[in-house]
């Protein structure tokens, strides 16, 4: 499989900017080889009528939608926001409520699947907030919003049923710490 195809798959899963150095290390290629594969990917998108393109920014590279698809994306996101929560969204929201603040890596370590789209939808619905990670300013932690608490009729997450027991769950703490590479925010140390 071509490097450009591998990069496309990785960037799709990442869902956010990925630094070039991270990609070069992950695929064990030189910076020059990486730039060539990214250029090939850009050319592939330019040569076909596709809804995505490669965006290069100071934070790294990522896949984004083309500006021409703005109305379609907006209609889809608006529809998704109005829909009931999917089981994946409900699971992610519960995880954030009981384990937050928690990083995306921590969420994915517990759920076992990519959660970037679900996190975006929860944020768009105003149910979660995203803040810079206190131990790694290059990433974020998620926690439930005041709007979420209002919907449940509580004033703080520790009023949720069995909060203390689930927040301190040793198995989940181990998973989130391993995912973050150190103590997870909000976990007992």
For this entry, give a set of tags:
3-stranded antiparallel β-sheet, 13% strand, 5 strands, Arc Repressor Mutant, subunit A, alpha+beta, 2 domains, two-stranded antiparallel sheet, disordered C terminus
Report on this structure.
The protein has 189 residues and is of the alpha+beta class. It folds into two domains: 3-68, Winged helix-like DNA-binding domain superfamily/Winged helix DNA-binding domain (Arc Repressor Mutant, subunit A); 84-180, Winged helix-like DNA-binding domain superfamily/Winged helix DNA-binding domain (Arc Repressor Mutant, subunit A, Orthogonal Bundle). It is built from ten helices and five strands. The chain has a three-stranded antiparallel beta sheet with strand order 3-5-4. Strands 1-2 form a two-stranded antiparallel ribbon. A hairpin with a 7-residue loop joins strand 4 (128-132) and strand 5 (140-144). Helix 6 (104-111) packs across helix 10. The chain is globular, with a radius of gyration of 19 Å.
Tell me the structural class: alpha+beta
Named CATH architecture of the largest domain: Orthogonal Bundle
Strand order of the largest sheet: 3-5-4
User: Could you say how many structural domains there are in total?
Assistant: 2
Give the fraction of residues assigned to helices: 40-55%
CATH topology-level fold name of the largest domain = Arc Repressor Mutant, subunit A
The quaternary state of the protein chains shown equals single chain
What gross morphology would you assign?
A: globular
How much strand content do the residues show? 5-15%
What do the pLDDT scores average to? 84
Catalogue the unreliable spans: 183-189
Could you describe the largest sheet, including whether it forms a barrel?
3 strands, antiparallel
Radius of gyration: 19 Å
- Count all strands and give the number: 5
Question: Cα distance, first to last residue?
Answer: 44 Å
Top-tier CATH class of the largest domain = Mainly Alpha
So, the CATH homologous superfamily of the largest domain? Winged helix-like DNA-binding domain superfamily/Winged helix DNA-binding domain
Reading the helices and strands in chain order gives: HHHEEHHEHHEEHHH
């Amino acid at each position: 499989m071509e490097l450009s195809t591998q990069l496309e798959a990785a960037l799709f899963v990442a869902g956010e900017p990925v630094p070039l150095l991270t990609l070069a290390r992950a695929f064990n290629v030189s910076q020059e080889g990486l730039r060539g594969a990214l250029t090939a990917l850009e050319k592939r998108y330019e040569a076909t009528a596709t809804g995505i393109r490669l965006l290069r920014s100071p934070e790294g590279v990522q896949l984004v939608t083309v500006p021409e698809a703005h109305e379609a994306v907006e209609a889809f996101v608006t529809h998704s926001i109005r829909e009931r929560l999917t089981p994946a969204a409900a699971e992610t929201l519960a995880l954030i409520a009981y384990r937050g603040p928690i990083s995306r890596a921590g969420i994915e370590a517990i759920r076992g699947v990519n959660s970037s789209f679900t996190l975006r939808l929860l944020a768009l619905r105003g149910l979660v907030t995203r803040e810079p990670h206190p131990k790694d300013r290059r990433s974020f932690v998620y926690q439930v919003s005041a709007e979420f608490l209002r919907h449940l009729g509580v004033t703080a997450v520790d009023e949720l049923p069995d909060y203390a027991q689930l927040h301190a769950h040793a198995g989940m703490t181990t998973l989130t710490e391993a995912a973050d590479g150190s103590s997870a925010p909000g976990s007992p140390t």
